Amino acid sequence: MNLRDHIRSIPDFPKPGILFYDISTLLAHPAAWQETVGRLKAALTPYHPSVLVGIESRGFLVAAPLAYALGCGFVMVRKKGKLPGATIPYTYDLEYGTDTMEIQADAIAPGQQVVVLDDLLATGGTMAAAINLVHKVKGRVAACACIIELSFLGGRGKLDVPVHSMIAYDS
Which of 17, 35, 40, 99 is deepest in the core (most CB within 10 A)? Predict the structure, then answer.
């Protein structure tokens, strides 16, 4: 199955000049979604993760069902102020300014094997920040994965772990 056939491209969203790759059409197609989860499961099984970390918000859609399929735990990384209890923050640079994401302080045990997931890898800034946040709580990041990679933006080069993408766009 060609998963690209189930991704909708929306020009000028969220602003003029941006071509948005929408996974909602993939999620709505049962066979394509099952194929996507199956491919991700096959790619990540060799890492034997104890927990998958999903990045807010579409990363949750990828990581939660995949964690269920792999029989491991699921942990959320969210924007500052969205998680209850004690949290650990990580502030990172954006093109214009900074952002902060957090993880619950007790969500990952020291040394636990982790794979980080998001729906899309573009410049790599958010994925690198999530990886650094997992390191900050003493988790071991074995790999990261996404459904879509915009390879022309070079995000993979900012990451110090193996990267798995199901679909790559070169331009």
Answer: 40
**Sign of the Cα pseudo-torsion (88, 93, 97, 99, in order):** negative
Segments of the chain scoring below 50 in pLDDT: none
Strand 87-94, strand 97-104: pairing: antiparallel
In three-state secondary structure terms, 12 is coil
Q: What pLDDT score does 171 carry?
A: 82
Question: What are 55's strand-pairing partners?
Answer: 77
How many domains does the chain contain in total? 1
CB neighbour list of residue 2: distance below 8 Å, 6 or more residues apart: none
Active site residue 156: no
Is the whole model's pTM more than 0.85, yes or no?
yes
User: Out of 8, 39, 78, 95, which one is annotated catalytic?
Assistant: 95
9: in domain:
no
**CA–CA separation, 163 vs 143, rounded Å?**
6
d(CA 19, CA 76): 27
For residue 82, tell me if it sits in a domain: yes
Catalytic residue among 35, 58, 140, 149: 58
Residue 51's pLDDT is 98
At 76 the pLDDT is: 98
CA 53 to chain centre: 7
Q: Is the residue at 23 inside a domain?
A: no
35: annotated active-site residue:
no
